[in-house]
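Hello,

Following up on my earlier ticket. Below are the two sequence lines again, exactly as submitted.
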Amino acid sequence: MDSVKTIRAMESAPVTTAELAALKDGGGMVTVHGMVHTLRNFGGVRFAVLRRHDGVTQVVLPEDIRLPKEGDAVEITGAIVAEPRAPGGYELRAESIRVLSTPSEPMPVPIHKTNMGLTLDTDLSLRPVTLRNLRARAVMKLQEGLVRGFRDSLNARGFTEIHSPKLEALSAEGGANVFRVPYFQQHAVLAQSPQFYKQMMVGVFERVFEVGPVFRAEKHNTARHLNEYTSLDLEIGFIDSFEDVMSNETYALRYMMNLLRSEYAPQLGSLKLTLPEIGAIPALRFDEAKARAAEAYNLPRVDPNDLTPEEEQAIGRYAAEKLGSEFVFVTHYPTKKRPVYAMDDPDDARYTLSFDLLFRGMEVTTGGQRIHDYDRQVAKIAARGLDPAGFECYLMIHKHGMPPHGGLGMGLERLLKQLIGANNIRTACLFPRDTTRLSP
Amino acid sequence: MDSVKTIRAMESAPVTTAELAALKDGGGMVTVHGMVHTLRNFGGVRFAVLRRHDGVTQVVLPEDIRLPKEGDAVEITGAIVAEPRAPGGYELRAESIRVLSTPSEPMPVPIHKTNMGLTLDTDLSLRPVTLRNLRARAVMKLQEGLVRGFRDSLNARGFTEIHSPKLEALSAEGGANVFRVPYFQQHAVLAQSPQFYKQMMVGVFERVFEVGPVFRAEKHNTARHLNEYTSLDLEIGFIDSFEDVMSNETYALRYMMNLLRSEYAPQLGSLKLTLPEIGAIPALRFDEAKARAAEAYNLPRVDPNDLTPEEEQAIGRYAAEKLGSEFVFVTHYPTKKRPVYAMDDPDDARYTLSFDLLFRGMEVTTGGQRIHDYDRQVAKIAARGLDPAGFECYLMIHKHGMPPHGGLGMGLERLLKQLIGANNIRTACLFPRDTTRLSP
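Thanks for your patience. The regenerated structure is below:
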């Protein structure tokens, strides 16, 4: 049996930056590891900034210690001492350094600068290293926080997380904006949304959510579109009205912002961000919102059935200026522009029991109540000139019993873009995909 | 302003089954909703089993109440009373019922039976409704628990969650088992793993994980393969050895099992499952494991560089019988069978610093240490007859500095399959994808 090893469970996490800072008055010795983010020399004293998993640590390098290179992976032993001018109010006085690995070439761009001064295109092309910039890293850490908050809020309210397939049969609904994939002897498409699957799972778990990629083959390259993005989806059974879905989103967003406030303060600070306060969120009917924004800001009326990006901006501005909210729900979208599963307003079938949520003037969520009755769903499919036979799997849930239900999909990168005030959604995505960009 | 509504945050979750059970001695009135799972009549007394979001509730229906139909979505008001023979030790004596929706056709299969008696093919074709079966639902709830445990364990140890793209440029590594996707003027492929991206992100966050879909265009339909599955991936910087990766997996798995034990007891009970105890996990070198299993169970030796499913089974059996563990690490896989980024064993370059984890005789994880040095990685790419220029984005991290690192990918559905003792991996997946199945 001598050649049998046993692998015990990992016992601890790497020391956190908060733990290091807490040592500053005790003067204890520590051994930490990290990447040499940058080297500096002030008045003959040599400093390194060590980039660690959750923060940075200023290191003083005495003359008897061999200077590491920028980009080195190092392990440093030394004493933590108070230093008000250093990040976190402490610094590490190195006594020994072990270089664990060293780069073969220096960084192609100054990743240690607050502003790297790169065009977006250069930044994205060098993304594997530009994400090491502390501000870029902070943005992606906030992305994690938003997802955590979304999940935790829903776990606390009886939702079950699901994983639906991203490869689907070509839908009877068709759609120009789908990616087609040769799939053995068939053709598949990439999921544009987990819509049908999350509705199916409402019949199983009543309340479900999913965080996963969705794919949109839209041919336009804009600052607000990605061809692949992360969708935060939820679907709830036993609603009384589509307002229950909005109420759930209000709850989830408030939870997400509170989580960022409590656990992501360093990132918020590094990006100098102010989070929106979420009390109650105002809601305006589509026609009303359109009219008020047009009147307030003298906008031309273009498509009566949809909102232009300019109209969204104006409605967002109106909500901020007149309603005191950075979020605003726009409800009762015209039936013509909503999908076949949207429930029509029983009071006026030209409108649906649906909504978008605008955040700082951009749509970040689409949601609404769905049809649960089999005959009504079949009728609406047929009224659109589609063949109900092509929806057989989906209609199984309506046929065999579904509660009244509704849900929403939130675009993670859009929400983050608006939160950080970025000009371009690509900044809010690790490795964005657009019509020409497939790598890195 | 009268047409402005305000949407407040949802205030509470639906009442839980545990909360209902706790009312049984107080005899309080409640209003609950759910789906009529099945109707029964015992000695003239009419019962319904109500399927709710997190359990089932037995309901007594007095004669003056109109009998609902199976599959109805209902809201029931009544008194909770103790009833030792009912699930959870209580029942609901209905005083009024409101039918919220009603199916247009009865269930095509007896979803209320413990064993529905269906072929796998029929089950999968009717998946939107067969998942409403309580055992099927319990399996998918355990899937949620595994993912939660994986994430929570890693969040507690300083890992950052990432979302990497699933559409990639065609890799220089090629690979027969990739799905190709026409992508505007180019061709994309679907990610077989987040491998390169999670390594890139180690340079940013040091420790990262991802839970997401991966796609394998394998042409064989077996009981252990899916063409799309959910991969639990992690990658860790600053490891001393690839054993640190195994140690991390031991920790995560133990955390996952403990979470199931504490929060998923009803599901474990309904499936009559015994969870594996995870102390330390034994590890055997590939050659040694192969030899011992062959000797112990008189197996033919087939491919010296790989393990057949029969060999995996035998090694699993050996670990259970001789080493007292349902998990076993197999380490030092032959270099020939491992990918180009695997680090060779410095003591013998025919082997790699890599491992698989077998659970009850099936591989559920592949992992290992990766090459971090630029020149070594370029040399290994070239030695395989590949052009390093094709790996430019990936090699950026090696060129500009990477810590020693390693990681692993765990197949969620395989882990769940083994946990529930299913014959076929499709049982452990919501909506499985195989070479012929793209819907539901």
